[in-house]
Predict the structure of 4-hydroxybenzoate 3-monooxygenase.
Amino acid sequence: MTDTAAPSSTSSTERTSVVVVGAGPAGLTVANILRAASVDCVVLETESREFIEQRPRAGFLEEWAVRALERRGLADRLLENARVHSECEFRFAGERHRFRYGDMSGHHHFAYPQPLLVTDLVRVYADERGGDIRFGVRDVELGAIDSDQPSVSYTDPDTGGRVRLDCAAVAGCDGARGDTRACLPPEHVGVARHEYGIGWLALLAEAPPSNDCVAFGIHPRGFAGHMARSPQVTRYYLECPPGDDPENWSHERVWAELHERLAADGAQPLTEGRLIEKRVLDMHSYVVEPMRYGRLYLAGDAAHLLAPIGAKGMNLAIHDALLLGDALIAYCGKGDESGLGGYSAACLGRVWQYQEFSMWLSDIYHGASSGDPFRAGITGARLRRTLASPTAAAGFAGLYVGKDADY
């Protein structure tokens, strides 16, 4: 969004309890929790409302996350419209292997695209609860975050003037490239990174799903994934070289590879359709540790990024937000700092667990296409054990649905 307003030297100062930077699932969940507890907060978002409500993102929510949102009064439309998934399917060596993780774990997934969840959370916070959210802000800067008097300033897109918000705490929920993470001093906060060395071509097709559950194709030509997004739209993934140009993948090439990599005896033929999204994701992950500095507390992708291999990112963002929201209420309402003091450690246990699961699953997905016969054999054996052993299957099912979450 381009700021066309004339610059102005006029500035103003306001006071609020918490400034939430970023209106994604993490920031909006924190804001709704604060608003419900009558804790003053302001949400700042650099994009427009229309943009964040349409931005394509993840679509798989674990049951614990949905139930937590439901208890907060934030899941009415989700529960009404989401599709429930309790099975997935692995396809390799020309065979289909149905995995009924819902029966093993007692839990399931909800397929609900992130833009719809963001739309719901904005509606509840701004339209129903009268929360303060400011879209299209520019030049966000944090000040004195290592003190008890932090502030956040920004340029108003309408007036061009600078606005400063003095506050008690800042929730940094503005993603991997946001302003909050960029201000962390490297001598106090570390970032652990991992590069997978692979890419995924992320596709959205105007085509109904071609399977009644998520399907994972494990093939020597590369991984392929099939995930329903709606009765009319399907998400597909194709393994590709990192940094590949999406324009290298014509409509014909995409569908030829999907047909090849997802082929299995008895599988329904894929229904082709127009590709409405096509982008390459380089698989990498990172963890910021600790997830706080001074009065700045990071949540969601600002604190950790998971490659979409395990469909865990949005769930972790919600987990962070639930913990952070409650900790901020205790601090702002009662002066109780224990929740904020333990926030990072409470989040990081689950963060690292999900990172490990994603790496394990990546080996399964990409072993056959690694070009290493030994690795292909090892990962094939691992998958067969997971499918055949009740003990191994139960362990995988629990990790896949995150059933040990504490919310």
Remarks:
- The first strand starts at residue 11 and ends at 15.
